[in-house]
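I had to read the description of the data format several times before I understood it. Each protein is reduced to its one-letter sequence and a matching series of backbone shape codes. The format is easy to grasp once an entry is in front of the reader. For illustration, here is how one protein appears when written out as sequence plus structure tokens:
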Amino acid sequence: SNRAFSDCAFAKAKAQSEKARLEAKKAKIQAEINQFSRLLSNVKKESKTMVLLVETIDKKIARTQELINITNKQANLITRSIKKNTDENNKLKKEIKIQKEEYARMIVKAYKSKNEQSRLMFLLSSEDFLQAYKRVQYLKSYADYRKKQADEITAKSMRLEQINKDLEVEKKQKQEVLKVNKQQRVALQKDKQEQENLLAVVKQDEKKYSKEIREASKERAIINRQIQKLIEADIAASNVGKTGAVKGKFYLSPEAKVLANNFKSNKGKLPYPVDEFIISRKYGDQPHPVLAGIKIASNGLRFQAPSNSPAKAIFTGEVVRVQKAANGILSVYVRHGNYTSVYGNLKSVVVQKGDKVNTQDILGMVFTDNSGVTELRFVLMEDSHTVNPSSWLLRF
């Protein structure tokens, strides 16, 4: 009985843990969808932002589908829990019924032999002292067993009452989850319809949009090469006159080596450079989500964030460069030993070259363009080559 209760408690705790995990995941995805919705409402519906609109709604659709999958899992989890509780309910009812019948028979039997004379005669009729002792033990055990039966009936009745309450709560939870699931499906269909309408517009003038995307890619390639050249120049400067310097790698002082090792030991645990965000572009070459035959080269991550979002240092380090582009857009370079984190597309900065910064210190504010897009361009480098920031940042 105790083991059954323990197994039941373990199963319940496991189910609660799974519920909490799904809720947390659902909240994270919902926050991303809200961010996509804000972006869609901010972006002006003009030719220059049409492809961005299609890309954004494509991502929103994917996340909404994930949300639907999670609510399906939640509904299934609750259904299993309801079945389990219903089965336990039926089992307890049968057990209580049998125990009550047995208890009633015991009470009748006890009533018939309750007078002291009959008990005394039962003891006095013993053949010897040992038999009398065994009969006393029997009467005591019988009384204890009766009490145990009564306690078990009470405990099971209380458990039955709790199960019935749990069932009512779970049935309401399931109704709520199914209601949310239905709303999500309606929203998904609406977004898919809007996506089709936008795609139709893009397809009408595909050459024009393809040209714009290729021009933007060329601009990104120029910026990427600039970052590469600047880091290579920094490496060369660090190696001048140093014994044991290795070409293409930063020469590190003992202090810088410690910092680099600390940075490396925190791989997979570093905080994100913005607080609230959606990853709008991943690292590496990837096909364009809207136009076929076009590949996008990405040397880092892009984070779309709410307007007036601050960019924050991902680790302790030194500001080695604050770069200003011809259009006034700023970038901050922070060195962590032989690693460099680059925070691009800033409208303002609060640091300068030579500043020491700590993890999560604010470096500046992310720029918002005319389309209403606030996007941090984040690059992470080990010596002269880029690495995938997703491998280094905190995993959800």
Observations:
- The chain has six helices and twelve strands.
- The radius of gyration is 35 Å.
